[in-house]
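Supplementary Note 3. Input sequence used for the single-chain structure prediction.
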Amino acid sequence: MWKQKLCLNCSKSFPLSVPEQLRLYKRIGFDGVFFPWSKDDPIDEWKSVADEVGLTVQSIHAPFNKIDALWRDDEERANLALDEQLACIHTCQELGVPIMVSHAFIGFRDHTPTEIGLKRFEIMVNEAAKCGVKIAFENTEGEEYLAALMEHFKGNGTVGFCWDTGHEMCYNHSQDMLSLYGDRLFATHINDNLGIRDFGGEIIYTDDLHLLPFDGIGDWDDVAARLDRENFSDFMTFELKIASQKGRIDNVIYENMPFELWVAEAFKRACRVAAKRKQYRKG
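The predicted structure, written as discrete structure tokens, is reproduced below.
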């Protein structure tokens, strides 16, 4: 889009292979992509296809299913989690991808960051600095852990923030996360959501929907205004899902769309969000 680059996530859960997704994204109009990381995935091949069709790989998303182990006493599991993060950093370095997106925590019951956790994250950050890779920590559940990392690495140019707009609406009770970390904004994961479904306020992982913008409760004028407040000028990166969360049907309309039409609709919505930023600047 004119004066605004737009990026969309790839996913192995989508009905086309990742190389086919890349070719379609370019044809629809996206400028960039980001990949999930797994030791079994041919990310180097995906990167070659992205280069071939002219898509920038904006970031690689590190695994997060074990990330809570970095804060705990279980050395064996913590080492497995750390090895995954380091391997993802090395993949970014090898492929020339500038940013690794990482979660600070996974889970809802624990709320106490630990010194041993900070030391393990120091290993990650130090290795990333050696490799010339930046780490963008994302707002998810476990805000205390994100806060601890952002404070611990304050002033460290390797560490920044990835703002997930949909996570903010559920995991973060719609508080303005950019007011906390916007001065270190490295990346975005833009998506819509329906907030916290439980009347009593209990948050669970199925509250995280990753809807197309304008399909949920998001205030997209506010999103545009806040991005401009932080003078963010990099890729506007969208992280969207087709499948509904377990036990829910919120995304079923996407599941019933041909994939090409879903990507085309995602591009239209991305353009609408970007256009709001232009309108805000004029105002």
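The first helix runs from residue 18 to 28. The chain has a mean pLDDT of 96.
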